[in-house]
Structures are given as C-alpha cells and as structure tokens.
Design a protein that fits this description.
Strand content of chain A: 15-25%
Number of strands of chain A: 16
Number of domains of chain B: 1
Number of helices of chain A: 14
Radius of gyration of chain B: 21 Å
Largest interface: A-B, 31 and 24 residues
Strand order of the largest sheet of chain A: 7-8-9-3-10-11
Shape of chain A: globular
Distance between the termini of chain A: 29 Å
Number of helices of chain B: 10
Structural class of chain A: alpha/beta
Distance between the termini of chain B: 48 Å
CATH architecture of the largest domain in chain A: 3-Layer(aba) Sandwich
CATH topology of chain B: MetI-like fold
Order of helices and strands of chain A: EEEHEEEHEHHHHEHEHEEHHHEHEEHEEH
Oligomer: heterodimer
Number of strands of chain B: 0
CATH class of chain B: Mainly Alpha
Radius of gyration of chain A: 26 Å
Number of domains of chain A: 2
Helix content of chain A: 25-40%
Order of helices and strands of chain B: HHHHHHHHHH
CATH superfamily of chain B: MetI-like
Shape of chain B: elongated
Structural class of chain B: mainly alpha
Helix content of chain B: over 70%
CATH superfamily of the largest domain in chain A: P-loop containing nucleotide triphosphate hydrolases
Strand content of chain B: under 5%
C-alpha cells in the first residue's frame, strides 16, 4: 500500500497516507483502538472502500486494473459475525464462491466437505442451517467459505471478536494451524493487542486519525515500542508478555531435589535442599515436601504441597516457565517432557538469569544489525 | 329466518349451481379478477419494493405514496373511473390494483431493508454481483415478509372485487348486488359467505406457498 488516504465527503479522514508492505504467505495484523481506520484499510484491499488517494498494489499490479468482482473472488473475506446465508445449508454456504466461479455442484460440494474437515467441523453439520450452529462453529464456516476457492489472500475483519474467550483461543490456534498448512497471505484486523501478538508475523499498530504508529514483528513491538501511544496500547505487562518470544530450551535444569516416592532416608537427606519434588513410579510429579516432613518409605502424596502447572522446555516459552515458578509454593518450576515425566526443576533465580541473558543477546543482535 | 338458514337455503338450491349465474361460474370469475389484479399489483409493487429496499433509497417517497393510495376509497374511485372511461374490465382493475400495491410495495421494501447487513457485506466482499446479492442473499431471507404483504393484498382484493358487479361485471359480487336489488337476502348472505370462504382459501394458499418457498433455515424449524 503506497501512501493511501481515505477521506469521506464530510471531511473525515479515516486513513491518512498509510504505506504498508504486506509480506506474502504470512499473517499481518492491523490493530488499534476503534476509529483508527483499521477496518477501512482492510476494506480498501478488496475495494469495498475506494481510496481517495494513493495506490494499492497486489503482486506489483494496481488493484484498480482488474474488475472489482474478479479481485474480490481472488480474496477470501471473513467478517465479525460470519455473515452466513441463513437460507442455505452449511455445505452450500461454503460452496458459494466455487459455484460463482462456475464449478459444478458436485465438485463444489466435495470441496466444501474437504474444507469443513480442514477447519475442524463435523461432517454431520453439512446439511444443517446456520441458526443451528454455535457462534464458534458459524465462524469456522465463515473461514471455510472464505477458503473455498483457494484464494491466495485472506482478509479477516475482527473475525473472532464476537465469540467467548475459550472458543476464541481455539479459533486462533486453528487459524495458525491452517496458516501453517496453506501458507496464505492473511490480513487480519483486531482491536485486541493480545490477539495481534499471538497471530501476527507482522503487526501494524494504528492510531486514531488513520495513521500508522508502528509496523514491526510482535517481539520488536514489545521490546521497542515506537512511542508512548504504542507503549500505552501494549499495556502494563508487555515485559512479561515479551517473554513469550524467548525459548525455555536453554534453561539449566537440575534433578538434585527430585526424589522418587519410595526414596530412602539417605536420598531425602542428600540434596540438602529446602524442598524436594516427589515423583511417582512413572516419573510424574506428585508434589513438594520439606526434607524434615518426609519419612522414608512412608511419603504420603496427599500431604505434599502442590507443584503447580509444569512447563515443557523447548515447547513452552520463558513466560510459561516463569509462570510455573511464580505459581509454585516453593518458587521452583517443574519441567516435564511431552509425556509429563519430570526432567528437572528450575528456580526463579535461574529463570531470572535466563531472562537477563536473553535480553542481552537481543541487544547484541540489534547492535549487530545497526552497525 | 336467521343467517344460517339463509346460508343453507342458498347453497341447497340446485338452481344456484348451474348456468351463467351459477356458483362455479361466479367463483371462477371472481378468482380471475382477483388473480389478474394481484398479478398487476405484484408486477408494480415487487420490483419497485425490491429495488428501493436493496438500495435503501426512496423509502420516504414510497411511504408517502402508499399512505395516499390507501386513503383512496375503492368504490368511489370505481364510479369515477367508470364515468370517465365507461364500463369494462379495466375500470375495475384500476381501483383493485391501487388498493393492492401499497401493502405489497411497503412490506417488500421493509422486508429487504431489514435483512441482516452482514451476509450482504460478506456476499459483496466475496465478489457477488448486486443483482445476485438481491435475488440470492436478500430475497430468500425477506421472503416470509414479502409473502405476508402479498397475502394481505390478496385478501383485500378478494373482498373488494365484489365491486365489479356494480359495473355490470360478474364475480361473487353479483349475488350481493342483485340480492340487495331484488331484496333476496338469501342471495346476499350466500354471496358474502362465498367471499369469506374464498378469503380463507387465499390464506391457506399463502400458508402452503410459505411452506414450499421459504427455506427451513429462514423458517428456523
């Protein structure tokens, strides 16, 4: 998008000289408070709104140069309340664009069935009508319908903002999975900064008056907000949230204070730690106990302190590890493998050091880039 | 003699079932007038209502014209037109059509206006042409309301088509007009009963049309 402006006849400027390069095959999120022009920006891409000034190029070609219906049919479009056709069954809703493109009924329906599976909808829902589906299911149908003709570009206008937080998280995970499989170029509008950070490869923060405040990958947004507006919009805990982008794989784990349920008196005394993590026969965590309270051969799992939610090094971020440590009554986080067996424990201090060294590495990277 | 006696006497008289003044013939004429008037009114009301409803323009003008048209007395209009144009089918059709256009026009306009805007936005965003949006997205959802407009227009036409008899045409109004003239109240009540029955049949026809034409996704059952 090159210096695009949308000015309404009454003089209101919805989008002001916005320039944005949207990378192929990734998710670009437009985020900002209401009235910042993010939806207008999105709708200019499929010409639901025509810009007053500036040009929008798609693969180097001005989008004004092809017929508007051709342009729109090459872009999937998902809106807030799904906007399903209530008089059509789910399968026919999804088959809409293929039918418009002249596909046969059978082929279009087969494609629709394939997409239902891809977005995680039960095939039994195919013959239902939209009113018989929950909000989350309707939104999945909306995504499937947008993907039906396999468009290279997907425009999503606050698609998940009308569903409850649990369903929203499911839909977000699903979108990331679909994106992994299909590699579409997705432009996603939201007012929810957490959603933006979770989904975006690049995040464009917009401010009231339709101006771009910052355009950066989410990690950079959190570490280096361009100005007070962006910093304020990111919220108070951006430091904590930034930890989501640091891996926990390099944390130094210790197995010293880990003992089995049938530990001997010697095993209990040996580590010399304040607290010991007791595991069951399979190596799964049971809970914490002070050495003085534990009797060899008679450790009662019910009397142990809870161990909190363990994290998986490599899969979870430093944020998850820190969260485990903060939640743990002993201040130690429990690390487990994918099967839930304890691989070690790590203290808040160790996590703190890891955070400091991750920040230092980050700064070193930046210095390298700028020099 | 009470009304029920009139009714049974009228319908049991075999003379009323044959010939050019028989019940089948008059019923057929009445249905023909009504269908013609409804078709003409729909041909005017539906396209204008659909178009104004889709674009959202002209709603106020529409409401004004509809209210004005409703205020015209059908019988007075008929007499006026007959004086101006002479006898015939056309002078009868004009007041009936003027009577039927407003309910069709206004409900069609309202029906299309009140369609949820988000499917329309989605359809436009996926590259559907405006005519297709109107016929494949808005119309199916607006259909129940549009049918109700057609239904009330049809009922009004059926009951008002009796005035055709005043200008020497046929239809069930014949019994009422002639009966009054001849002081044959059996005939008057019989004719009125037939009009009422025809109105009920009209209701049933529209109910069946609704069952057949409206998608279960819109009916929600």
């Amino acid at each position: 998008m090159e210096s695009v402006t949308k000015r309404y006849p009454d003089g209101t400027v919805a989008v002001d000289r916005l320039s944005l390069e949207i990378p192929d095959g990734s998710i670009t999120v437009l985020v900002g408070p209401s009235g910042c022009g993010k939806t207008t920006t999105l709708r200019m891409i499929n010409r639901m709104v025509e810009p007053t000034e500036g040009t929008i190029l798609l693969d180097g070609e001005d989008i004004q140069r092809q017929p508007v219906t051709t342009l729109r049919r090459s872009m999937g479009y998902v809106i807030q309340n799904a906007g399903l056709f209530q008089h059509r069954t789910i399968v026919d809703n999804i088959a809409t664009v293929p039918r418009m493109l002249g596909w046969g009924k059978q082929k279009a329906r087969a494609r629709a069935a394939e997409l239902m599976e891809r977005v995680g909808l039960d095939a039994a829902l195919a013959k239902r009508y939209p009113y018989q589906l929950s909000g989350g299911q309707q939104q999945r149908v909306g995504v499937a319908r947008a993907l039906a003709a396999d468009p290279p570009v997907l425009l999503m206008d606050e698609p998940f903002s009308a569903v409850d937080p649990v369903v929203r998280k499911g839909l977000q995970d699903e979108l990331l999975r679909i994106q992994d499989e299909l590699g579409k170029t997705i432009v996603f509008v939201t007012h929810d900064i957490d959603e933006a950070i979770k989904l975006g490869t690049m995040v464009a923060v917009m401010r009231t008056g339709g101006r771009l405040a910052q355009y950066a990958p989410p990690a950079e947004l959190l570490s280096d907000p361009a100005d007070a507006f962006v910093e304020d919009f990111l919220g108070a805990d951006r430091g904590i949230r930034r930890l989501s982008f640091f891996p926990s794989a390099r944390l130094e784990l210790t197995t010293g204070p880990v003992i089995p349920l049938d530990a001997t008196a010697e095993q209990i005394a040996a580590p010399g730690a304040d607290h010991l993590l007791v595991t069951d026969a399979d190596g799964r965590p049971l809970g914490w106990g002070a050495p003085g309270d534990l009797t060899a051969g008679d450790i009662r799992p019910a009397e142990l302190l809870p161990h909190g939610r363990p994290f998986v090094p490599g899969t979870d971020s430093l944020r998850a590890a820190l969260d485990c440590a903060v939640l743990s009554p002993t201040g130690w986080a429990v690390a487990v493998d994918a099967g839930g067996r304890v691989t070690g424990v790590v203290s808040q201090q160790t996590i703190g050091e890891a955070i400091r060294s991750a920040h230092a590495a980050d700064r070193a990277d930046e210095a390298k880039v700028s020099s | 003699m009470n009304v029920l006696n009139f009714v049974s006497a009228f319908f049991s008289d075999s003379a009323h079932w044959h010939g050019y003044d028989g019940i089948p013939q008059r019923l057929l004429e009445h249905v023909q007038y009504s269908l013609l008037a409804l078709a003409l009114a729909a041909a005017i009301g539906l396209p204008v209502g659909l178009l104004t409803g889709h674009t959202g323009r002209g709603g106020n003008a529409l409401a004004f014209i509809a209210t004005a048209a409703r205020a015209l007395p059908s019988f007075g209009l008929l007499v006026l037109i007959v004086i101006m144009m002479g006898f015939g089918l056309l002078p009868v059709m004009i007041p009936l059509v003027i009577l039927a256009v407003p309910p069709i026009l206004v409900t069609t306009y309202e029906a299309v206006r009140s369609v949820d805007p988000s499917p329309v936005d989605a359809a436009r965003g996926m590259g559907m042409r405006e005519s297709r949006i109107l016929f494949q997205v808005e119309l199916p959802v607006a259909l129940p309301l549009i049918l109700s407009g057609l239904r009330s227009a049809a009922i009004q036409i059926v009951s008002t088509a009796t005035i055709a008899a005043y200008v020497s045409l046929g239809g069930l109004g014949r019994y009422i007009v002639d009966g009054l003239y001849q002081r044959d109240y059996e005939k008057v009540v019989g004719g009125a009963t037939l009009v009422a029955v025809l109105a009920l049949v009209t209701l049933a026809v529209f109910w069946a049309a609704g069952r057949l034409a409206v998608s279960p996704g819109v009916r929600r059952r």
